[in-house]
From TrEMBL:
NCBIfam families: PRK00241.1. This is NAD(+) diphosphatase. Pfam families: NUDIX, Zn_ribbon_NUD. CDD domains: NUDIX_NADH_pyrophosphatase_Nudt13. It comes from Sphingomonas arantia. InterPro entries: NAD-cap_RNA_hydrolase_NudC, NudC-like_C, NUDIX_hydrolase-like_dom_sf, NUDIX_hydrolase_CS, NUDIX_hydrolase_dom, Znr_NADH_PPase. Belongs to the Nudix hydrolase family. NudC subfamily. PROSITE patterns: NUDIX, NUDIX_BOX. The gene is nudC. It comes from the Bacteria. It catalyses: a 5'-end NAD(+)-phospho-ribonucleoside in mRNA + H2O = a 5'-end phospho-adenosine-phospho-ribonucleoside in mRNA + beta-nicotinamide D-ribonucleotide + 2 H(+). Its cofactor is Mg(2+); Zn(2+).
Length: 307
């Protein structure tokens, strides 16, 4: 199911099945990015807003929503990126030259993501990924020269060799192996006690999504996919990935776990998944948080089974 802007979503949709970090109301106004006059007009718009951030974490207002201030709050030498328009108002974020490790989430951020409305979390995700990309791409990958802001913050250009660089996202497959009415769940050693999720891995160069799903299942759990079905995708801003969620029936339930990748894995029944999503006491495992696409993957698989 393709994500639908919040103001166009029909009331009958079950939004527990819509991935987190999607549905931002941002109009990205791509045409403005190569129009200096449009960018100048946006910067001089008295209504223009700056997303208040502390490093890579958002600041929230008294209502627990993203906090927007005036552009004058930015440091005098700050580079500003135009995120887009919300309700016709230009929205900017300041680009921080040095930020903490973008793949890590602070305990405070985890709490904020549990409270943020999905559309606001999606706007934050775009801003966070953009800040991180700029912080890691200050120099030209072609000749090493410091690069300059380009396309209203949606690119950097080298003044020496004129190479253009644009924000990238890394594709990651995340999948539920399915066999005899059960799905395979696994956990990494670094996760909180009891947390299990779908298996996942980066798509390698020269590889399709279907090939990546089959390879990762074989490498991590020793199971052979007989087919692969795409379900949904999600931008994941830690630091900047596109999670491609799939379901893959496998030929056999026998597991051969790669201990370097997984601490444990087991086949979960519908009842196991239902109890985990409901956070029932005594559930066999703790489900991923609702803003993670793995949660959506479990919920959609369960809805299909119940249907």
């Amino acid at each position: 199911m393709t994500d639908i802007p919040p103001d166009r979503r029909p009331s009958h949709l079950d939004f527990s099945l819509v991935p987190g970090f999607t549905g931002s109301p941002l109009d990205r106004v791509d045409a403005w990015r190569q129009d200096p006059a449009a960018i100048t007009k946006a910067l001089n718009d008295p209504r223009a807003c700056l997303l208040r951030m502390e490093g890579l974490d958002p600041l929230l207002d008294a209502d627990g929503a993203l906090d927007w201030g005036h552009l004058a709050e930015a440091a005098w030498d700050a580079e500003l990126a135009l995120l887009g328009l919300i309700d016709g108002v230009p929205r900017f974020v300041a680009l921080t030259p040095a930020v903490p490790h973008a793949a890590r989430r602070s305990p405070a951020l985890n709490g904020m993501l549990d409270r943020l409305e999905p559309a606001q979390a999606a706007t934050y995700a775009a801003a966070r990924s953009l800040i991180d990309w700029h912080a890691r791409h200050r120099f030209c990958a072609n000749c090493g020269t410091p690069t300059a802001l380009y396309r209203a913050g949606w690119g950097r250009r080298c003044p020496a060799c004129r190479a253009e660089h644009f924000p990238r996202t890394d594709p990651v497959v995340i999948m539920l192996a399915e066999h005899a009415g059960c799905v395979l769940v696994g956990r990494q050693r670094s996760w909180p006690t009891g947390r299990y999720s779908a298996l996942a891995g980066f798509v390698e160069v020269g590889e399709s999504i279907e090939e990546a799903v089959a390879r990762e299942l074989a490498e991590e759990a020793g199971v052979a996919a007989t087919s692969v079905r795409y379900l949904v995708s999600q931008p994941w801003p830690f630091p900047s990935q596109l999670m491609v969620a799939c379901i893959a029936p496998v030929a056999d339930a026998a597991l051969q776990i790669d201990q370097h990748e997984l601490e444990d894995a087991f086949w979960a029944t519908r009842e196991d998944v239902r109890a985990a999503l409901a956070a029932e006491p005594g559930a066999r495992f703790i489900a991923p948080p609702p803003y993670a696409v793995a949660h959506t993957l479990f919920a959609r698989w369960l809805a299909e089974q119940d249907g």
